[in-house]
Amino acid sequence: MSRAPRWGTQLRALTVGLFALGGIALPVTSAVPAQAATSGTFAYVANFTTNNVSVINSATNTVSATIPVGTSPFAVAVTPDGTSAYVANNGSNNVSVINTATDTVTATVTVGTNPAGLAVSPDGTSVYVTNSNSANVSVISTATNTVTATISAGTGPFSVAISPDGSTAYVANLVTNNVSVISTATGTVTATVPVGTQPVAVALTPDGSAAYVTNQSTNNVSVINTATNTVTATIPVGTTPQMVAISPDGTTAYVTNLNSSSVSVINTATNTVTATIPVGARPIGVAVSPGGTRVYAVNEFDGTVSVINTATDTVTATIPVGPRPFGATATRVPVVATASCPSGHVVTGGGYQQSGGAVPPVETTTRPVGNTWQVLADNQSTNYTNVTPYAVCAP
User: Fold this and answer.
1) pTM
2) Strand partners, 149
């Protein structure tokens, strides 16, 4: 039976209740610390009722960890390097920061009232959090996990997406039926784009040329041309559309339809629905795997996640998670290893050595982090974890 639009009811309820020797730098190698049990692709699902996050291992389609977070978690976003996940806790007015290598919460950041959505900047330095009952957006520095700015938006800001160049944030305002276009450099609204009734979510194509906005009360998706900040297409989808996610190649958008218990597949070249996929009861969150081969649809009433094969547009697995799951994201979690300098010395450089294993890392990044040298090895095979970093230290 169809009910009143979900987020309008929810928002009203919330409003009421609401090493060196003699100066010569020498490399110093330290042992690799404890690493994630497995590296690879994982989906993180926020469970509203049980105040935790389920971690799904995409290789096995099983929940590999359950992480306690704040009250009534709504949404999850992951940093581009895959090392940290940020969770918007709608009921406790804060954001939990998860270390993906250990699946533990390492920080909790207080934000505005009833945070609902969040997005990480492409350079990984900032997290933008929509505060649905504060009519603003909190900006968190990932270096310090503190709020560095608060930006005004429309009424009922619910979801946010950041342009690929990091210059612009797009905020879907559920109550004022529009999208705020925010300059991240100045923290000001530079344009306001009218869309459908009760916009819930917004997602950008990888090239940043278009924003897709789900309008839950008009059962359609508005397509915004980001160059002109005008709506260029309106696409009918299922009943009460909720979240939207776009494939890594930008060719396809996936929309969860709450009261149709389905996912609409949109061809972004033609802006038409090419398939409608039945999933579990009342799907809300949706995420596309980094490789674009899977879509994760989060079914609120079933307490499950439907795994969709994007080649066939069919559900290939159904995974039980917590009660009333809401938001989701999918990411590659790397092997993380660090080498430290002795007390009194500083890191001036570093690198890594690799040995063993059947498959080398797909991508390896090295960088200084505090007084350590960190290596991130983006593994597609759990057989390869022998990455040993070393730090070059100076007094």
Assistant:
1) 0.83
2) 139
